[in-house]
Design a protein that fits this description.
By secondary structure, the chain is mainly α. The longest helix has 62 residues. Helix 1 runs antiparallel to helix 3, helix 11 packs parallel to helix 17 and helix 13 packs antiparallel against helix 15. Helix content is 69%, strand content 1%. The radius of gyration is 28 Å and the shape is globular. It has a two-stranded antiparallel ribbon. It is built from 19 helices and two strands.
């Protein structure tokens, strides 16, 4: 589009924009005021019921698993038993207050953003969507948040506790601390918390005007010149909204810095234990403020480094080396990220709407890819007989979902590794337009923990050079065979007779299944996995896989609530009602 040039054209563009913006903003505020209390009530009441209802079980089971575990040494157990009552008692308060703040924020801002998204270029009836968008979708989103929170409190928590209390190999070293180090660790932590909280808060408050000024300056430049993410006309309202809400982002950043400073101060006790030196812990208290200052300078595109002192807090630490504590990058990587950020800044986002920006967020893309890959491979495995109706039935009725929740994602990831290895890619090819490498992979710790081992396993698979027959055999071994011990493949039909080759593949598969098992504890995994199971069940019905089996299933074994809920956001809202055999054809027709 034509960008306004000249003072009067720019002035007229700004003046004509104001009524348009204020009408949308007022409508968004009204929708937020109406929908916000409803969403807040849903989230607060539901989450509070989950927290209070499960709190006695969480309290008792946590102590039981800590006392029973063989992974922790006696001294560490004693310390945890003494310290655990504090977080366990604070958990209901923190959970309820967090639900209240989250409900208020989501219930108010989601309708507001949806109002501005309704004027996007791909929306047909803009006037209608300005009034409707963000109402029912926000209420449905609140129930989704409650569902994910319930999954975390019920499934994820007990899964972590079960892993803590399970048997460990005899050669595994216990995690323990020395009793003689505890006094110095506690002393340094007690010093570090008030010192780091006060100093980091001071740095955050000192830098906040720079963040406010630079954000407003960039947003105003883009608004007036129609540059960056506001190049199109439909994006101009978002410029005004971003300018108006930018101070809230600055306040949120300061609050996050204050909260994180508490844990950074506590970490000084860990440094004392690692280095067995009180002085090293005190040095860390000073250094972490400098590290935080440098990290903030990097985010705000200010001068590199920090003028604050940074003493060594590790004996083998290079004093000239930029520590990876806060930025998670070494000197070279930090420089690359800074140059890339300076080149693109806000214009690189191209985020016409908030929803579009979220969809383009790499962790979301990786998560979406995993489940889409499981969906495609699930259909193929169902067609080839490696997944049958008994597996789906056991998962729905009995909750035995290991084959679908562990082995199916593991095979999907193995396929990605095989494809990436064959294409000689330096990273992971997860789609036609997205390749994850070390330079563009998500910086979040969880995804670094997920992608890093996959890159190593891809290189290992590349060196093995599997042929098509071995890949087919490997698929069957993953889906049907056991892989708990090295001897499980001794009687398998794997084509290679090289025991070293078999052992390498077994180690890769075992590690992959362990990664997937850990991923299954993420709350969104459970919700999306349920959608995947429903899809596979629908696919089995539509392909006639249940033709001879459905009459044998008693009607009482299934109910509509366990199998049917509203579909996902991509449009799958089919309804499945498993009735008696005489209505089988009618049910299948309804589902199609």
């Amino acid at each position: 589009m034509k960008v306004p040039v000249g003072f009067f054209q720019v002035l007229w563009s700004f003046v004509s924009f104001l009524p348009y913006f204020f009408l949308l903003f007022t409508l968004g505020l009204l929708k937020g005021a109406i929908i916000g209390p409803v969403v807040m009530g849903i989230i607060v009441i539901s989450n509070s019921a989950v927290i209070i209802g499960l709190w006695p079980a969480h309290f008792i089971w946590t102590f039981y698993c800590v006392l029973r575990t063989k992974r922790l040494g006696p001294v560490l157990k004693m310390v945890m038993v003494v310290a655990l009552p504090v977080p366990l008692i604070l958990w209901p308060i923190v959970g309820i207050v967090g639900s209240l703040l989250g409900g208020i924020g989501y219930g108010f801002f989601a309708p507001l953003f949806a109002t501005f998204e309704a004027v996007g270029e791909n929306v047909a009836d803009k006037c209608y969507h300005c009034f409707v968008d963000g109402c029912l979708s926000t209420i449905r989103g609140s129930w989704t948040a409650v569902q994910d929170f319930t999954d975390f409190c019920f499934h994820s928590y007990f899964s972590y506790m079960d892993e803590l209390s399970e048997k460990v190999p005899e050669d595994e070293k216990l995690v323990d601390i020395r009793l003689s180090k505890l006094p110095s660790c506690f002393l340094v932590s007690l010093i570090g918390v008030p010192v780091d909280v006060s100093l980091i808060t001071a740095v955050a408050l000192w830098k906040s005007p720079y963040m406010l000024y630079q954000g407003w300056k960039r947003l105003l430049e883009d608004l007036v010149g129609r540059e960056g993410p506001f190049l199109e006309t439909v994006c101009v309202p978002f410029a005004g909204l971003a300018i108006l809400l930018w101070p809230l982002a600055v306040v949120g950043a300061v609050i996050a810095a204050v909260i994180s400073s508490f844990f950074l101060g506590l970490y000084a006790g860990v440094i004392v234990h690692q280095e067995d030196s009180l002085l090293m812990g005190l040095a860390y208290i000073v250094s972490v403020v400098s590290l935080f200052d440098e990290y903030v300078n990097d985010l705000l595109y200010l001068s590199e480094g920090s003028c604050l002192p940074r003493p060594r807090y590790h004996r083998n630490m290079n004093p000239n080396r930029v520590k990876k504590k806060l930025g998670d990058s070494d000197n070279e990587d930090l420089k690359i990220r800074r140059e890339s950020s300076l080149e693109t800044k806000l214009s690189s986002e191209r985020s016409r709407t908030l929803k579009w920006a979220i969809q383009r967020y790499k962790p979301v893309q990786v998560w979406d890819w995993l489940f889409k890959s499981c969906e495609v491979n699930g259909r193929i495995l169902l067609r080839d007989g490696l997944i049958d109706i008994k597996d789906i039935e056991e998962c729905i009725v009995k909750g035995n979902c290991k084959k679908l929740s562990i082995k199916l994602p593991a095979w999907s990831i193995v396929q990605c590794l095989l494809t990436s290895a064959k294409s000689n890619s330096s990273g992971l090819v997860i789609s036609d337009d997205l390749e994850l490498t070390k330079s563009n992979s998500p910086r979040e710790k969880m995804f670094e923990w997920f992608i890093g081992p996959l890159l190593i396993m891809k290189e290992q698979i590349k060196q093995l050079q599997l042929d098509d027959k071995e890949e087919t055999c490997l698929r069957e071994l993953i889906m049907r065979g056991k892989n708990e011990n090295p001897e499980d493949w001794d009687e398998s039909r794997f084509l290679s007779s090289d025991n070293v080759r078999k052992a390498q593949l077994q180690a890769i598969i075992r590690r992959l299944q362990g990664i997937v098992a850990s991923m299954s504890r993420v709350p969104t995994f459970r919700r999306r996995f349920r959608n995947l199971v429903k899809m596979l069940y629908i696919e089995a019905l539509q392909t006639g896989a249940l033709a001879n089996h459905i009459g044998e299933i008693p009607k009482s074994r299934y109910n509509t609530d366990s199998l049917v809920r509203s579909g996902d956001k991509e449009g799958r809202d089919e309804t499945v009602n498993v009735l008696s055999a005489d209505k089988e054809k009618h049910d299948i027709a309804d589902m199609v």
